[in-house]
Amino acid sequence: MCGILAVLGCSDDSQAKRVRVLELSRRLKHRGPDWSGLYQHGDCFLAHQRLAIIDPASGDQPLYNEDKSIVVTVNGEIYNHEELRKRLPNHKFRTGSDCDVIAHLYEEYGENFVDMLDGMFSFVLLDTRDNSFIVARDAIGITSLYIGWSLDGSVWIASELKGLNDDCEHFESFPPGHLYSSKEGALKRWYNPTWFSEAVPSGPYDPLALRSAFETAVIKRLMTDVPFGVLLSGGLDSSLVASITARHLAGTKAAKQWGAQLHSFCVGLEGSPDLKAAKEVADYLGTVHHEFHFTVQDGIDAIEDVIYHIETYDVTTIRASTPMFLMSRKIKSLGVKMVISGEGSDEIFGGYLYFHKAPNKEEFHRETCRKIKALHQYDCLRANKSTSAWGLEARVPFLDKDFINVAMAIDPEFKLIKKDQGRIEKWVLRKAFDDEEHPYLPKHILYRQKEQFSDGVGYSWIDGLKSHAALHVTDKMMLNAARIFPHNTPTTKEAYYYRMIFERFFPQNSARNTVPGGPSVACSTATAVAWDAEWSKNLDPSGRAIFEVHKQAYDKQAAPVTSSIVPPEIIDNVPQMKVSTPGVAILS
Fold it and tell me: Within 10 Å of residue 261's Cβ, how many Cβ atoms?
């Protein structure tokens, strides 16, 4: 992931302003350690910190059209850039960068080209012919982006809060799937899929179509000119990503450059069951497996750095970001610059344990829609910033636009958890990859029950965080929490502790408003808390709050039946699979 910073229409073209922009751009240097670029046109500045993944030799930014009248700074990857180049036969490209197509598409189609881009991206485009500009962010918000306004009338854009929080009077998260046009002075949504309305679909479940769509999503993300690997926790989602990558790597450009044997990476507390599961999957797939251990104290020592880089005080996000942050540093030290990860599956398929209590298919579907729309505030933010902190890029095939369209068109009746029919959470995904002739994964991995990320690292991790917070936050401090922090008031000492650190780095009202709030149980939205009256009494964001309810949901259904869909021994074992094990499931 790269870092972008733009200051547009600042009414100041002085050298002092240029120096300030350079200074702020350096705050994003961790995102792009390979090259720095700054373009100035009058009182508009476009800065870029590059992490070179595609065309490392000539793809430095900003990027231009033929006569340099269109200037672009981009963070992300455009997976269909070769196809788009073919649609621009009269254009001459300066580099082999996948992002080089953006300026030329704007020349041909104006502001209406964004939906043509297949990838993850955030960019600022300046048209020097009339000094107008547009800003856009990818459909789901995989890349991070913020927009701010200064007292001098300028508009600021940055990949992270720290690039603009000290210089803007007001700033906020740039909404995913939106475009900002200076000509209109407003945001508009360019991403308008059918599922966004939350209308309940009635499409059939075609396991082969779902499998094909996901394989395609993974394969297109093998586009790279640098060493890469996969994040492997041993859970379903990351294991499927690893399996498909290993299956299709041979014959790709990446394999010719870096070898056909896939590298996989895992992190956890020493001796955790998930480390064992990841190793088992790695051995099955034949990957070069790298296992990293951390201690509870290692994690606690990193908390301040994590909050500075992740830019949130959300408890669950910080818990899950810390192991990923530590792992990313290790991965980058090995010379790897890109990893493929498994975020997004639980939101699309209702994989979180609380989905067992969905009252009907309609509410199940609406909750998946709400979860996908909020990904940019949680898992996408975690995956993007935990890795970018060390100059590592994370790609997430479950959040491929085409794949989401296929998965969200399925009648949610097929996604409901029904043990009497051999259907555990994410059954439609498991069934799609249950291939007897050419198995993707061992059966017990394919039908392994969901482990919630920070809980999967081990309750000793969570309990260690709580104990550490209790040393720094007193009961007396908690009594005044609502007065000290009236917005998103912390209700636990752990939350209070994180909030103090966040406010030290980002003290502005706008900063605290970028972080979501509201009640949640086991990663649910506030709306889903109403599914069970007991949940409001135990608003713990971790999976432990839901496990007994989850187990009871299985037990209350009909007795297990032998099914041709799922082996009966796996069905029988589902209720006994515990969530409260000290493993790592950051990406399962």
Answer: 12
For 495-519, write each residue's pLDDT tens digit.
999 999 999 999 999 999 999 998 8
Output DSSP code: residue 87: T
Side-chain-facing half-sphere of 469: CA atoms under 13 Å: 25
Mean pLDDT in residue range 326-350 = 97
Q: How many residues does the chain have?
A: 588
User: Distance between CA atoms of 555 and 394, rounded to whole angstroms?
Assistant: 38
Compute CA 93 distance to the chain's CA centroid, rounded to the nearest angstrom: 31
Maximum Cα–Cα distance for the chain, whole Å?
75
Cβ atoms of 428 and 207 within 8 Å: the answer is yes
Helix (H, G, I), strand (E, B) or coil at 395: strand
According to the annotation, is 399 in a ligand binding site?
no
Amino acid at 158: A
The answer to whether 164 is annotated as binding is no
CB-based contacts of 89, cutoff 8 Å, min separation 6: none
**Dist CA 340 CA 395 (whole Å):** 5
Structural domains in the chain, sorted by start: 3-192 (3.60.20.10), 201-545 (3.40.50.620)
Angle between helices 315-333 and 296-310 (to 10 degrees): 100
pLDDT > 90: percent of the chain: 78
Hunting for tokens 């480390």 — which residue is that?
Answer: 275
Residue 117 CB coordination number (10 Å): 26
State how beta strands 132-137 and 146-149 pair: unpaired
Between CA 38 and CA 27 the distance in angstroms is 14
Is residue 267 part of an annotated ligand binding site? yes
98 is in an annotated binding site: yes
391: left (phi over 0), alpha (psi -120 to 50) or beta: left
For 158-180, give the DSSP string.
Answer: ESSGGGTTTT-SEEEEPPTTEEE
Q: Are 315 and 290 in contact (CB under 8 A)?
A: no
Sign of the dihedral defined by the CA atoms of residues 496, 499, 504, 509, in that order: negative
What is the rounded CA–CA span in Å between residue 470 and residue 413? 44
State the distance between the two ends of the chain, measured CA to CA, in whole angstroms.
22
The residues assigned a catalytic role are 2
| DSSP string across 421-472 | GTB-TTHHHHHHT--SSS-SS-HHHHTPPP--HHHHT-HHHHHHHHHHHHHH
| pTM strictly above 0.85 | yes
